[in-house]
């Protein structure tokens, strides 16, 4: 059975994003962490900050592009997943956290990446 092309594109974008962020000095801690009410694409460390990264792939920039697709509802799901992650990893609970978004657009193999630092916050 062939894999879903959308899933393949998303996985390729997540891989490209992880590679890019590592090249920028971040450390990959976890990927594709799933909880009942949300998923974390990438969990990284940027110095003393824990970074939850949402990767959004779009073939083109129609309808606002990849980054615009992180709606307030999606943000709440990411915040809930991050809260669960912190509860499961108490060693990270005292670190400052931020939520970044990587927009990946265009070619699936080598997408154009846009990194939005601190794209939204959890209000904590």
Task: Explain what this protein looks like in three dimensions.
This protein has helices at about 5-25, 70-90, and strands at about 25-35, 40-45, 50-60, 95-105, 110-120. The chain has about 120 residues and is an alpha+beta fold. It has a 5-stranded mixed beta sheet with strand order 1-2-3-4-5. The radius of gyration is 14 Å and the shape is globular. The termini are far apart.
Q: Which descriptors apply to this entry?
A:
2 helices; Restrct_endonuc-II-like; Trna Endonuclease, Chain: A, domain 1; endonuclease activity; UPF0102 protein SAMN05421546_0199; nucleic acid binding; 124 residues
Short overview:
With 124 residues, the protein is of the alpha+beta class.
Task: Give the SSE map.
Blueprint: H1 5-23, E1 27-35, E2 38-46, E3 49-58, H2 72-88, E4 97-105, E5 112-120
Parallel strand pairs: 3-4
Antiparallel strand pairs: 1-2, 2-3, 4-5
Count up the helices: 2
Number of domains: 1
Q: What sort of overall outline do the alpha carbons produce when their principal axes are compared?
A: globular
Could you name the CATH topology?
Trna Endonuclease, Chain: A, domain 1
Per CATH, the architecture is: 3-Layer(aba) Sandwich
InterPro entries: Restrct_endonuc-II-like, tRNA_endonuc-like_dom_sf, UPF0102_YraN-like
Keywords: Endonuclease, Hydrolase, Nuclease
Organism: Solilutibacter tolerans
GO molecular function, one term: nucleic acid binding
């Amino acid at each position: 059975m062939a894999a879903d092309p959308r899933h393949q594109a998303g996985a390729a974008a997540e891989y490209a994003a992880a590679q890019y962020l590592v090249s920028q000095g971040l450390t990959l801690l976890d990927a594709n962490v799933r909880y009942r009410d949300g998923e974390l694409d990438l969990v990284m460390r940027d110095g003393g900050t824990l970074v939850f990264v949402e990767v959004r792939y779009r073939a083109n920039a129609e309808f606002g592009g990849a980054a615009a697709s992180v709606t307030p509802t999606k943000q709440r799901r990411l915040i809930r997943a991050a809260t669960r992650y912190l509860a499961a990893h108490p060693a990270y609970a005292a670190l400052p956290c931020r939520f970044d978004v990587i927009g990946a657009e265009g070619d699936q193999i080598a997408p154009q990446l846009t990194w939005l630092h601190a794209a939204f916050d959890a209000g904590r």
